[in-house]
């Protein structure tokens, strides 16, 4: 039986932060499912950094189907979860079903990969207190308010939690997450 990994996301997620881990984990031999508030075609965005802008810009990105709705997720069927960033976490953190899903991964000490604004979801699930994390740098105060110690680094590993700042850090993020996965939940 193939080891399954869950990606939780929604509209306005950063395209690269969904599709890079999705494809990389499939390449490693994992079965990857994307869950969203409902089963539908999701519309992702592309965030980029432009000279003269104080923050990132946003453009339309790829579309991709959600395999299942949050209400259909059985966390016990999944060995790990990936939490992409973009704008999606801003509204997804209000979803009580998603918070329950994420809490179950932390309660079972399963691997969790989060990037960019994704840590807004784990903060909403009250899972960051006492942890070391990184996130998009503008979230430093949010991470501290959630009880985490913020580190400005490509990837931060705290037990089974692997976090990263944004898509430019993908190689370090996935390298560290795959180390955790190969130990806790090898692909079969």
Automatic annotation (TrEMBL):
Q: Spell out the protein name for this chain.
A: DJ-1/PfpI family protein
The record, for InterPro entries, names: C56_PfpI-like, Class_I_gatase-like, DJ-1/PfpI
The entry's family comment says: Belongs to the peptidase C56 family.
Among SUPFAM superfamilies, the record links this protein to: Class I glutamine amidotransferase-like
Supply the source organism for this entry: Streptomyces vulcanius
Q: Which CDD domains match?
A: GATase1_PfpI_1 (cd03169)
**Could you name the domain of life of the organism this protein comes from?**
Bacteria
Q: Which residues form the DJ-1/PfpI domain?
A: 4-179
Write down the Pfam families for this protein, in alphabetical order: DJ-1_PfpI
Q: Which residues form the signal peptide?
A: none
């Amino acid at each position: 039986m193939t080891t399954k990994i869950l990606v939780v996301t929604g509209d306005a997620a950063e395209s690269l932060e969904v599709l890079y881990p999705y494809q990389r984990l499939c390449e490693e031999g994992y079965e990857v499912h994307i869950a969203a508030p409902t089963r539908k075609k999701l519309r992702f965005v592309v965030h980029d950094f432009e000279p003269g802008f104080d923050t990132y810009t946003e453009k339309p990105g790829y579309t991709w189907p959600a395999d299942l709705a949050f209400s259909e997720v059985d966390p016990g069927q999944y060995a790990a979860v990936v939490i992409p960033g973009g704008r999606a976490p801003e509204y997804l953190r209000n979803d009580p079903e998603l918070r329950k899903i994420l809490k179950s991964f932390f309660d079972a000490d399963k691997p969790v990969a989060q990037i960019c604004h994704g840590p807004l979801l784990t903060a909403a699930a009250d899972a960051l207190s006492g942890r070391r994390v990184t996130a998009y740098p503008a979230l430093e105060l949010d991470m501290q308010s959630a009880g985490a110690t913020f580190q400005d680094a490509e990837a931060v590993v705290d037990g089974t939690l692997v976090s990263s700042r944004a898509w430019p850090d993908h190689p370090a993020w996935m390298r560290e997450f795959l180390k955790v996965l190969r130990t806790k939940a090898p692909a079969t």
